[in-house]
Amino acid sequence: MQAGEQVLKGEDADVAQEVATILRQDGIKILVKTKAESVSRKGTRYASRFARENVPSIQWFAPARCRGRTPNTDTLDVTAAGLAIDDRGFIKTDSKLATNVPGVYAMGDIKGVPLYAHFLRRFPHHPRQPTRKRDASIAGRFVPYTVFIDPQLGRVGLTESQAREQKRRIRVAKMPMSYVARALETDESRGFMKAIVDADSKQILGAAVLGVDGGEIMSQIQIAMMGKLPYTVLQDASFPIQPC
Ligand SMILES: Cc1cc2nc3c(=O)[nH]c(=O)nc-3n(C[C@H](O)[C@H](O)[C@H](O)COP(=O)(O)OP(=O)(O)OC[C@H]3O[C@@H](n4cnc5c(N)ncnc54)[C@H](O)[C@@H]3O)c2cc1C
Description:
Blueprint: H1 13-25, E1 36-42, E2 45-50, E3 58-60, H2 73-76, E4 145-147, E5 153-157, H3 160-165, E6 170-176, H4 181-185, E7 192-198, E8 204-210, H5 214-226, H6 231-235
Antiparallel strand pairs: 1-2, 2-3, 4-5, 5-8, 6-7, 7-8
The site of flavin-adenine dinucleotide has 11 residues, from loops.
C-alpha cells in the first residue's frame, strides 16, 4: 500500500509502473493513492481500513509499516558532545565526514543520506578503509543502488525526470529486456533498460536497468559514467552472449 501516486517514489513513472506490473504478475497486491486509516487486531489477524473508495478492508497476519528511517541521535544525546544535527536528527558532516567538533567524524546512516551499506565502508575514515586517505572526499560520488526484487532494478545517476527538471538537453534510450539475449536465455524477459544521455557531450547521465542481473549491468554503466565515456563507446562495444 502506498499513499503516493506510485511505488518507488523518486523513480521515473515508467520504471515504477513496470516494477508494479512485475510484482502484480507475481501475485503481490499493490494499492497506490491509498492511505491506511486504522489497523485493528482480531486474534492473530490484523485488519486495515483504507481511505479510498471501493477498497475493502484487508486482513493481514503481519502488518509492517515502512516509513523511512530515523536516527537515534536523540536517545544518544549527541548534542551533549556538542555535535550539530540537522532537522531530521542526522549528524551534520562535511564532505570528509568531519563533524563540527574537531577530530570527530560520523560514518554510516547516522550522517544522513545516502543510507546504504555500500556507502559505509568506502568512506575515508572507516577503520577498514585500506588506504585511509585522510584527504578523500565523498563529494561528487555517484549513488548507485539496486532494488533487490526479482528481476532486479539497478539505478545510477539522474532519472529522466531529474534531468528534465534540470533543463538539460537529453536523449533517452529505452530497450525492453525481451530484446536481450541473456534475458531470453534465462526465461526472464520482463522489464527494460533505460539510459539518459547528455545530447551535447554524449556522456551518460543516468540509467535504470530493470531486468535479469539489473544491478550488475547498472554497475558496468556506472563505471562508464565514472570514466566519463560517451555512450557511443558502449554502443559500439561487443559483449558476450550465449547463443540459443
Ligand atoms: C529493511 C532494510 C533493507 C536494506 N537493504 C539494503 C540493501 O539492500 N543494500 C544496502 O546497501 N543497504 C540496505 N539497507 C541499509 C543498510 O542496512 C544501512 O545503510 C547500513 O546498515 C548502515 O550501517 P550503519 O553501521 O551505519 O548502521 P546499522 O547497521 O544500523 O548499525 C548500527 C548499530 O549500532 C547499534 N546501536 C544503536 N544505538 C546504540 C547504542 N546506544 N549503543 C550501542 N550500540 C548501538 C545498533 O544496534 C546497530 O547494531 C537496508 C536497510 C533496511 C532497514
